[in-house]
Backbone:
């Protein structure tokens, strides 16, 4: 982890430029020339990027993958990207007709 990126992300968390809460619609993206919200450098086609939407104020977030990992760690996130959690399995215990009763 680059110490400068960690310092920049901390400052942006403290001054409110980065959200402390969760983000939704997290996706890997290809960008060309947009500024990283984490470090301020340009995200080029050769960089891996992550985008999302802050659930606190619905602003768009875009960062290098490395900056996203630093942000997630510094804000006290749970690191859901790094966990290997399988989605829950749906196993109906009743027939489909009974679901219409609810």
Residues:
């Amino acid at each position: 982890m680059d110490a400068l990126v960690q310092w920049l992300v901390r400052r942006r968390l403290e001054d409110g430029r980065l959200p402390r809460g969760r983000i939704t619609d997290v996706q890997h993206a290809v960008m060309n020339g947009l500024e990283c919200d984490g470090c301020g450098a340009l995200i080029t086609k050769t960089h891996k990027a992550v985008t999302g939407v802050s659930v606190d104020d619905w602003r768009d977030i875009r960062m290098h993958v490395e900056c996203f990992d630093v942000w997630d760690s510094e804000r006290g996130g749970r690191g859901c990207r790094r966990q290997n959690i399988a989605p829950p399995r749906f196993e109906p215990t009743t027939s489909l007709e009974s679901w219409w009763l609810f």
Q: What stands out?
A: Helices lie at 3-14, 65-74, 96-99. Confidence is low (pLDDT under 50) at residues 80-88, 96-102. The longest strand covers residues 23-29.
